[in-house]
Amino acid sequence: MNDSKNQKNTLFRIAVPSPLRRAFDYLAPGSDNQSEQGLSFNFDAEQQYDTIEVGMRVSVPFRGKLLVGIVLEQIDSSSVATNKLRVIESVLDTKPLLNALDIKLLNWASQYYQHPIGEVMQASIPTLLRQGKQAQPATQKVWQISELGQLQLESDATSLNRAPKQKQILQLLAQAQQHNNNSTSDSSNSAPTSISGISEQSFATLEGLGNWRDTLKRVTNKQWVTESKQSVTLEKQNLTLATTTAASTGHQLNQQQQHAVDKLLIAIEQQHYSAFLLHGVTGSGKTEVYLHACQACLTNNQQVLVLVPEIGLTPQLLTRFQQRLNATIVSSHSGLNDSQRLASWLAFQNGSADVLIGTRSAVFTPMKRPGLIIIDEEHDLSLKQQDGFRYSARDIAIVRARNHTIPIVLGSATPSLESLYNVEQQRFTLLELPKRAGNATPPKINIIDVRHLPMKQSLSSHLIERMRWHLEQGKQVILFLNRRGYSPTLMCHDCGWSADCLRCDKHMTIHLTANRLRCHHCGSERPIETSCPSCESDNLLNIGHGTQRIEEALLEYFPDYSTIRIDRDNTRRKGALDKIFNDIHANKHQILLGTQIIAKGHHFPNVTLVGIIDIDQGLFSADFRASERMAQLILQVSGRAGREDTAGEVAIQTHHPEHSLLRALMSKGYGEFAKELLQERYETQFPPYTHLALIRAEATSQNPPQQFLLEAQQLAKQLNKDIECYGPFPAPMERRAGKFRSQLILLTNDRKTLHQCLTPLVQQLENKKTNTIRWSVDVDPMEMF
Ligand code: ADP
Ligand code: ZN
Ligand code: ZN
Predict the structure, then answer these.
(1) Contacts for 630 with CB less than 8 Å, ≥ 6 apart
(2) How far, in Å, from the CA of 498 to the mean position of ligand 2?
(3) Measured between alpha carbons, how far is 91 from 71 in angstroms, rounded to an integer?
(4) Closest residue by Cα to residue 4 from 59, 50, 67
(5) Phi, psi of 510 (to 5 degrees)
(6) What b/e string do you get for 283-293 counting C-beta neighbours within 10 Å, with b at 16 or more?
(7) Distance (Å) of CA 287 to CA 290, 471, 596
(8) Pocket around ligand 1: residues whose beta carbon is below 6 Å from it?
(9) Atom 9, ligand 1: which residue's CA is nearest?
(10) Which residue's CA lies nearest to atom 8 of ligand 1?
(11) Cα-based distances in Å from 769 to 697, 756, 774, 776
(12) Ligand 3 centroid – CA 229 distance (Å)
């Protein structure tokens, strides 16, 4: 603690949101230099606090503005003369938001990813805190049934019949109460649980309640119901819980699951850092293993951080955790609003929540009582942020687990080569679940050689036949095609002209339903041409198939079955995807046609056939990760088939049935296949055997980015002659959204050399005048464009 009197002229190093790769020194408030005039910033907390501690937010003057910064450390001296130093304007927190380990992690990430510390700090806290809002969760009203209300419901049902709305609401609240009682009765280690009521937020989502606010007012006035305030996300979702199934007690673990759980429990009990790779085929019961490990942490009064890919965080998964664990579970993902995200963050940070299930950025959420980190679908691309602060949440989580000395589990049916390599290097312990859990058997995978087969709109007669067979058994069918829109190219049959994006080196996609051409790379759109702008012919062809076009064909083939298309075009709206999934579970649709949105994590018990319409595109790609991606995608999509008692079938259409990748995957399975890929990476000296950084540059004309990267390349060579440089090359799609893009690849045999070169290189590039160029560094890039 600092005494306020002694803090006069005390120095602090502060992370300020600025693109400069450094922190800034400031004097404590009340120092003699305080002369800021005319700056105002509308913070919630304008009051000046006495003490400044590391990890608190402060508002500081920066280039004529007041910005929210975070105190990194107290320092003894600054390289800036004291009379030049600016003074902290005000302190925004009464308690530190980040502890020493959190700051250590952020410093590490800033160094490792060569990203400005101020921006790293900003990325690690919720929007509202970034804006200087108070570190207190927003609240909402929650209603609970009272004893009087219970009595009324039990004893005087007839008089209530005259007030059906009131009765309905009382019953709902009683149900919520009932559920809460059930789920708390079996636990001695009750977390600071939330109350068993229904919130404003939940009432608003319920249908058929009419004017529920009025009804609630009436029953509250009669004292049948009590009203209270609660933080926005800490409400237990009693309504989804009311559908509790037998599964809520869990399954008897099979032998492999038990083995995996035992290993994890040892690490949890010993509280040391260790990393596990849980490689379990789809449907093998990985989630069951997570739940058991979570339970052990909860018993120890420890928190668990669960990271999931962007669209892997379904209400299904949340509900499963809520049904099984008697704990306060919060979530963090893009479907929540800012105050909900803040509430989750604070609950985890201050220890009132036990489990946080979140997407990528949740990796930074401070843990009060760290116990375990779980990363589901660790191979998933969405764990890596691809713009701005380009970090891998998986890799940061590993560093974090080490800092906290806690175990971490990475789970996947198709682990990344990086993780398999770490197993090989004995940095990770491998836990395997080679069989599906329960009675489910692995799906049978058939390659359909479509050469010479009759095809209609990309669907072969053979695939149609298989679909018909499964549909007639009353089952559901998934068709996978990773291309949305109607058709990817509009082409003139007479002169070969094609409808290209004016701002990118790409074709426009035809969206017939919207009657527009759209660029999937920059978002620009225009009406569909009706005649060729080059030769004026009307003979324009739609080349290729997107989901909309297949949907059209399916209506023709299967008029008696309902087809639902699931792609970004019809799931963008909040809640749209949930509704579609619910409809699928209610069997309102039998044919599910989708892009990779359907490839991940969802459990559709009635799906027995998965058809992959076209994999040929993915078989021939320049990216060194293409084979790995392809195999992961095929297996993930295939994993949706036959997850319950009925055996599943997968049908893959290709013109290249002899392709070595396909054959290897089919005959050997993922594990062996991945081993071969690793060998290939070794021979070609690509990651994980070497280390990469990509420097990208873009500008409105072609030459400056090339020139800039050429200089970067020369600098890099001067800094370290061992570093290998490739490029500068134009990016695979050179022009995107009107910008010309180039890239330079830096490659080394060991990580240390890479960073020894990168740090001064980036510093020097930063000092260049590059007003017309935008450039960025990507350490461990996942996509090479
Ligand atoms: P994964 O996460 O590996 O895809 P899940 O944990 O979702 O697998 O399990 C797949 C299905 O198998 C679920 O319906 C789950 O309830 C069931 N299951 C898991 N473990 C067992 C078990 N030991 N016995 C019977 N069924 C199980
Ligand atoms: Zn033409
Ligand atoms: Zn474009």
Answers:
(1) 615, 618, 619, 661
(2) 8
(3) 10
(4) 50
(5) -85, 125
(6) bbbbbbbbbbb
(7) 5, 29, 21
(8) 247, 251-254, 257, 280, 282-288, 437-438
(9) 285
(10) 285
(11) 14, 23, 11, 15
(12) 48
| Cβ 486 vs Cβ 542: under 8 Å | yes
| Per-10-residue mean pLDDT, the chain, length 785 | 53 94 91 54 48 94 95 92 90 95 97 96 94 85 89 77 85 80 45 61 76 90 87 48 46 93 96 96 92 95 94 75 88 86 93 94 96 96 94 98 98 96 97 86 86 88 95 95 89 93 92 91 92 94 91 94 91 82 93 87 85 84 86 88 80 90 85 92 94 95 94 94 91 90 94 93 88 93 83
Encode 98-122 in three state secondary structure: CCHHHHHHHHHHHHHCCCCHHHHHH
Other CB atoms within 10 A of residue 710 CB: 15
Question: How many other CB atoms are found less than 10 A from the CB of residue 446?
Answer: 15
According to DSSP, the residues that pair with 654 across neighbouring strands are 449
Residue of minimum CA distance from atom 6 in ligand 1: 285
Neighbours of 599 (CB within 10 A): 23
Site to substitute for ligand 1 among 249, 251, 255, most atoms within 8 A of C-beta: 251
CA-nearest of 439, 438, 103, 431 to 278 is: 431
| 605 CA: nearest ligand 1 atom | 14
pTM: 0.85
Contact 615, 654 (CB under 8 A): yes
Q: Given strand 428-433, what is the order of strands in its sheet?
A: 329-332, 355-358, 303-307, 370-376, 407-412, 274-280, 428-433
What tokens appear for 394 in the block? 């998986």
Cis peptide before 688 (omega within 30 of 0): yes
Ligand 1 midpoint to CA 643 (Å): 9
Beta bridge partners of residue 61, listed in sequence order: 66
CA-CA distances (angstroms) from residue 400 to 41, 303, 372?
A: 34, 14, 10
- Secondary structure (3-state) at 253: coil
Ligand 1 nearest-atom number relative to CA 601: 4
State how far Cα 437 lies from the chain centre. 26
Atom of ligand 1 nearest to the CA of 254: 23
Crossing angle between the packed helical segments 255-270 and 286-299, to the nearest 10 degrees: 30
For 61-89, b/e burial (b = at least 16 CB within 10 A) is bbeeebbbbbbbeeeeebeeeeeebbbbb
Say if CB 575 and CB 540 are below 8 A apart: no
Between the CA of 487 and the centroid of ligand 3 the distance, in Å, is: 16
C-alpha of residue 739 to centroid of ligand 3, in Å: 10
Cα(452)–Cα(449) distance, integer angstroms: 8
